[in-house]
């Protein structure tokens, strides 16, 4: 189904990197249809680190894919800056992702035949551009990759491979970096180092980060946590700690009260 547009323009708030307005995403048809998103709305402030959490099946990955233009929606709008992603065809969405977004995945997705340096430069190489030497040097130094640039992925540890993937995501200075469970394949020390860098990238480098995670400890590194349940944004938490995230997740997982389920309570 072609995405429908909202009946009224959605204003872009000052300092907003991306905005989702009343997103609906349905998989399947008839009795087997699943509403992965059911009116989800969220704003992503520029230059901040936002974590997205929710129970299994809450729609958190679907929301990230919609915000990143990796998937279409059935209703609602997604704005990246002043660009309405829901009005673009697949070719223009692909160009937008290449030119304006960065991605970090749990599986690293490095090219085995390329060195770390070549993997980092790959987005710019595909676009026919050269990296900014000062920015490349800053990323390499900050991520501790100076002695690993000529190594191929098989010669790097998991933490080093993920740091190469982060440098690749940042090399083109994207408007937003989307990270999907980026610490899932890392040991605790490597995961903490990566999360420290993502937080530093937002606070010191002004990078906008959106991370989907199931780990309250990882979410505690973010400036803000957005919680989903049943395809909707149901809560937001500023300055999170692992304890406050766990408390909010427990509320989402708790069964509804008898009054709520009987229809007699308010």
Structure overview:
- With 266 residues, this protein is an alpha/beta fold.
- The chain has one domain: Rossmann fold (3-Layer(aba) Sandwich), CATH 3.40.50.300.
- 34% of the residues lie in helices and 24% in strands.
- It is built from 9 helices and 10 strands.
- Strands 6-7-8-3-9-10 form a 6-stranded mixed β-sheet, with helices on both faces.
- Strand 1 and strand 2 form a beta hairpin.
- Helix 3 runs parallel beside helix 5.
- CATH superfamily annotation: P-loop containing nucleotide triphosphate hydrolases
Percent in helix: 25-40%
Low-confidence stretches: 1-13, 257-266
**Share in β-strands:** 15-25%
What coarse outline follows from CA principal-axis ratios?
globular
Q: How many beta-strand runs?
A: 10
CATH fold-level topology: Rossmann fold
Order of helices and strands: EEEHEEHEHHHEHEHEEHH
CATH class (first level) name = Alpha Beta
Determine Rg (CA atoms, Å).
Answer: 19 Å
As for the number of domains, it is 1
